[in-house]
Amino acid sequence: MKKVKNNRSRALKDNMLPEYDFRGKQGVRGKYYRAYRQGHAVRIQEADGSVNVRYFTIADGAVMLEPDVRAYFPNSDAVNQTLRALIALIPAKPATRKVAPRSRKTRAR
């Protein structure tokens, strides 16, 4: 059976510049993950020649999940529901732990 080619996809390939052809190349997952968590700056070149710099950080209260954890939670509701179930297991008033003072005796060598 002969494979029928789609004219639209052929037209898109013909119009694609060679620098946008990423076939045979592999990206690196999470390459900028740590840098993004620390925040980043975006420089915007204005029409009058000035440069506007905007700084972005993760919003307060926002949490970035690691990929292995994200696999278990399809959306934020699932995360919240699970965390509320864990919170219910925590005692209302955490027990305070008394730490005994350390002795200042030195060991003989």
Topology summary:
Blueprint: H1 7-15, H2 33-38, E1 40-45, E2 51-56, H3 67-70, H4 76-89
Antiparallel strand pairs: 1-2
What is the gist of this entry?
The protein has helices spanning 7-15, 33-38, 67-70, 76-89, and strands at residues 40-45, 51-56.
Could you please describe the fold and organization of this structure?
- The protein contains 4 helices and 2 strands.
- The chain has 109 residues and is an alpha+beta fold.
- It is elongated.
- 0% of the residues are buried.
Strand content: 5-15%
**Rg over CA atoms:** 27 Å
Structural class category = alpha+beta
Query: How many extended strands?
Result: 2
> What is the percent of helical residues?
25-40%
Largest sheet: 2 strands, antiparallel
Order of helices and strands: HHEEHH
Number of helices: 4
Mean pLDDT: 79
- Low-pLDDT parts are none
Alpha-carbon distance between the two ends: 86 Å
Which oligomeric state applies? single chain
